[in-house]
Amino acid sequence: MSSFTSRLPLSRSAIDRDDVSRQRDDLLDELWADASTLVLPLHDGSAPLRTDGSLALVPPFPVDSSVLRVYLGRTLPDERDAGGTPVVAVVVDERTVPGVGEVEWVGLRAVGAALPARDAGIFTEALAMANWHATHRFSPRSGAPTTAARAGWVRIDPTDGKDLFPRTDAAIIVGVTDADDRLLLGANAMWAGKRYSLLAGFVEPGESLEAAVAREVHEESGLRVDQVTYLGSQPWPFPASLMVGFTARVAEGASTQPVPDGQEIIDLRWFSREELAASLDEIGLPGHASIARAIIEQWYGGPIEDGIEW
């Protein structure tokens, strides 16, 4: 793992996804009868966090047959676990769950960077799968209600029996610099102009990642870039993205005057490292769980202490 990738909180994982076991029709019932199985409850995108900063993984508890369960795999050995423990995510309608105890229900954005590697991987995988199920209740082919199968990793169209598999949307995110090594940051319209981040966007059909970088930067800022360099990637299950990180440089001879598109991006600013440090009491930066934060801090040369909390 590269030094940059090791800094991406949601790319960490300590679980064997165990694809082979998913093929057993009775797997979830078997695991539910096994007291050693660990269960992660999810409610409205949140999971229970214990006071020690770890996820509250509990033994199986009674659930209705209509409740969504997804087999996440088996743990790998770490300081808390000898490995091989099965883990299942379950989507619950309320936060009263047997065995959870005193917890705080939290979102992945808020705690992803602080979770142990195993918990970060489990939460990210569970949330991504729960979001996929929530948005694929009906077949795109026939419109008929679909049913979950293969331990939660497939939904089936009842009209033709065909499998529908989970999808991930590729998106690029890019740290754009100029000849003076200043970093370009933009304010999205939904942030009221007070939070600045990198330029990003979804990859379009028939488009390479590198072409998406050049297109998105030009669409959002009017700038032309080259020297597009891959850094690393991180899952971002909000609801189903894979953020692919790059750096790029304004092309030689091209204008360095950014022009926001006025719809998605309402302001664009170049920052030197000194200017960014001096602005932290005025602007917010991306959260510590995001790849955007990792790219900014790599350019900056180290961790950045937040001024405004977002």
From TrEMBL:
It catalyses: a 5'-end NAD(+)-phospho-ribonucleoside in mRNA + H2O = a 5'-end phospho-adenosine-phospho-ribonucleoside in mRNA + beta-nicotinamide D-ribonucleotide + 2 H(+). Keywords: Hydrolase, Magnesium, Metal-binding, NAD. Its cofactor is Zn(2+); Mg(2+). Residues 166-294 form the Nudix hydrolase domain. PROSITE patterns: NUDIX (PS51462), NUDIX_BOX (PS00893). Pfam families: NUDIX, NUDIX-like. GO terms for molecular function: metal ion binding; NADH pyrophosphatase activity. Gene3D superfamilies: 3.90.79.20, Nucleoside Triphosphate Pyrophosphohydrolase (3.90.79.10). Its EC number is 3.6.1.22. One of its GO terms (biological process) is NAD+ catabolic process. GO terms for cellular component: cytosol. Belongs to the Nudix hydrolase family. NudC subfamily. This is NAD(+) diphosphatase.
